């Protein structure tokens, strides 16, 4: 993202491309009112471009007066807008050709096409929202579950920013006391004693630690858990996937090795988004295509959150299942003890040693037996029994910066706990902790950070 100019008027199609009842072209910047007057012909003769009011009329081409579409137009004068600038929304019928023609006319009148996320970037640069709130806008749009939606809403409303501001204020107080003790050592300032500074820092430390503990669980609710379905050929992996998602997503035949590529499908269970990944069966590759599929499984393992080992309870343990000894220690695992609708010829204690301590659920992928229990166990292994706490850290960027802050606070506590206290070094650690918080809130964000955040947005948001 190049450095944006806040003096430009930007425009973009704000609704998804394709057919729809309504399509919206939005503008932000000083030319918004001027452009509205040039292309909009109101239905009412007593029309005036009042702020925050919808007006019905026609969009006409400014050069030849040709009719483009009927429209509802709303002009909104800053700063009471999303970007704190003058804004214009043009609502026309939701066809891509109509929307594109309206956008082309808007651009011909002096606006430029917005960069991805530039409307929200302007809201940030103009001080309407901070960086965590800006990120929450994207999280709100991309939420995959009700829990992720709740976290995004709370972050957008400023719950996380408020907590961070509280931590920041306490750290600043500790820094002021440390610097007072350094500058005026002859003065006996009770609050500036090392013990008082230490209490302040430890209070933030404990709060930060609890918030960071929520990250791994919150990330799963936000991004979704990746579940690999593993096992030898013909144990029912594809049948299990199909039954769990409720339709024939993967091809199922009696021919061993039918699944060659990774087959992925989403479902949600108790608020947790889950991406199930059916994989090629474990056996010596019969051809280059099957070998390639097995390599994809090994690569996918790096991003997996949990492994489901499908075992055919009606057959002896195949030697290929022995590979689990290398993979089970890497990720949480669950055994799906499949084909219980047939006569069982296998006992759980005959499983490879690596799977003996793994939760085991008896299922029949053919009959649909035990699937809810399997999903319950998967849910429990990933996120436990407790619901998400009210204050969570769901962003990797936030987690990294808060961990940096916590590391500096820990070092400050270590220095304060030493006999000499080292207040000058303590003050430096506290400054570094505050710097990490400033970067999180966007107060010290350079162009690379802003580009990384806002480039993930769609154009028009």
What do these coordinates show?
This protein is α/β, with parallel strands linked by helices. It folds into three domains: 10-130, 2-Layer Sandwich (Gyrase A, domain 2); 134-214 and 393-441, Four Helix Bundle (Hemerythrin (Met), subunit A) (Up-down Bundle), CATH 1.20.120; 221-383, P-loop containing nucleotide triphosphate hydrolases (Rossmann fold), CATH 3.40.50. The chain has helices spanning 32-39, 96-108, 118-125, 131-142, 146-156, 159-183, 194-213, 215-223, 237-245, 288-300, 324-327, 371-383, 396-416, 423-441, 447-454, and strands at 10-13, 20-28, 40-42, 53-60, 67-76, 87-94, 112-113, 225-230, 263-269, 272-278, 306-312, 333-338, 360-362. The strands form two sheets. The protein has a seven-stranded mixed β-sheet with strand order 3-4-5-6-2-1-7, with helices on one face. It has a six-stranded mixed β-sheet with strand order 9-10-8-11-12-13. The longest helix has 25 residues, at 159-183. The two termini are 15 Å apart. Mean pLDDT is 86; it is low at 251-260.
How would you summarize the topology of this molecule?
Blueprint: E1 10-13, E2 20-28, H1 32-39, E3 40-42, E4 53-60, E5 67-76, E6 87-94, H2 96-108, E7 112-113, H3 118-125, H4 131-142, H5 146-156, H6 159-183, H7 194-213, H8 215-223, E8 225-230, H9 237-245, E9 263-269, E10 272-278, H10 288-300, E11 306-312, H11 324-327, E12 333-338, E13 360-362, H12 371-383, H13 396-416, H14 423-441, H15 447-454
Parallel strand pairs: 1-7, 8-10, 8-11, 11-12, 12-13
Antiparallel strand pairs: 1-2, 2-6, 3-4, 4-5, 5-6, 9-10
